[in-house]
Write a structure and sequence with these properties.
Strand order of the largest sheet: 1-2-3-4-5-6-7-8
Number of domains: 2
Radius of gyration: 28 Å
CATH superfamily of the largest domain: Glycosidases
Structural class: alpha/beta
Order of helices and strands: EHEHEHEHHEHHEEEHHHHEE
Helix content: 25-40%
């Protein structure tokens, strides 16, 4: 487990060497901006990014959404990509989804919007994830979304989160104290310690691709390995397969076909059982009765 922080325009004075030396920031997730305009880039984004990189702290980033429709959130995603273009992130790039007006749209719409945003990031070559509070994640996003993308869950005031779906990062406090930072900040635990290795080797988040597989495995063989859980799930699976030089879309297509095939039930014929007929004779009150008894 790794310790980390996330910061934004609120942290205006940061001594990154002190942060690094504190041992409380194995990584930092930086707010890149919000909304659908390029002018809404976080005013401290460039400074935080440069400072963390210079101090040797791995970074990720997030974009705060205000969108209320698929088209609006797609615009936000594109502005996010423009903002982070040319930079490299060792940790995922996240959609920050927490506006009350968004949740008022209902679970189906929130899920549709999240998918639209995250798919744009993935298609652009980023390891994309979803951030929200525990209650909002569990009540406003489908299980399909929560299992498909890496999740960063916010859940304060507990010794251990009870969030019931898979997650890789937990924001456990918003009032942490870290040497080198001029105010209280958000504190996190990351349980996927190989994020940097996965992202770099897959050539994601601005990094060049460095690993290519020379394996002779077929798409069918790889699909069967996926079903055996040898390649992880969701975004992690896509990153690992891509890093190994495989065509993720082709493999996932076969995986879906195999799942569909295995889900079909086949009616078994009812076994025929030979019946034995026995002649029975009984006497009652001086009278004789006879008949047959069939056993099976």
């Amino acid at each position: 487990m790794l310790k980390g922080i996330d910061i934004s325009y609120c942290e205006t004075k940061v001594d990154w060497n002190a942060v690094k030396s504190s041992g409380l920031a194995d990584f930092v997730i930086i707010r890149a901006g919000y909304g659908k305009l390029a002018s809404q880039k976080d005013k401290m984004f460039e400074s935080h990014y440069a400072g963390a990189k210079k101090a040797g702290i791995p970074v990720g980033c997030y974009w705060y959404s205000y969108a209320k429709s698929v088209s609006e959130i797609q615009t936000e995603a594109k502005v996010f990509l423009q903002t982070i273009s040319g930079k490299q992130f060792e940790y995922p790039v996240y959609l920050d989804f927490e506006e009350k007006s968004q949740f008022a749209l209902g679970k189906a719409k929130c899920s549709e919007m999240a998918k639209a945003f995250l798919d744009i990031l993935e298609n652009a070559g980023y390891y994309a994830g979803l951030y929200a509070s525990k209650s909002h994640l569990e009540n406003y996003f489908t299980e399909e979304i929560l299992k498909r993308y890496t999740v960063w869950v916010a859940h304060y005031g507990v010794s251990e989160t009870s969030y019931k779906y898979p997650f890789d990062m937990w924001q456990y406090s918003s009032s942490g104290t870290v040497p080198g930072i001029n105010r209280k900040c958000d504190m996190n635990y990351c349980y996927k310690e190989d994020f940097p290795e996965i992202i770099k080797s897959a050539g994601l988040n601005g990094f060049p691709k460095t690993v290519v597989s020379d394996s002779e495995k077929t798409v069918q063989e790889l699909a069967e390995e996926v079903l055996e859980n040898k390649w992880g799930t969701g975004a992690d699976r896509k990153a690992r397969l891509t890093a190994a030089g495989y065509d993720y879309a082709a493999i996932q297509k076969v995986v879906n076909e195999l799942l569909d095939k295995n889900s079909r039930t086949v009616e078994k014929p009812v076994e025929t059982v030979e019946k034995e007929t026995i002649q029975v004779t009984a006497v009652k009150d001086g009278k004789t009765f006879s008949g047959t008894l069939t056993e099976q």
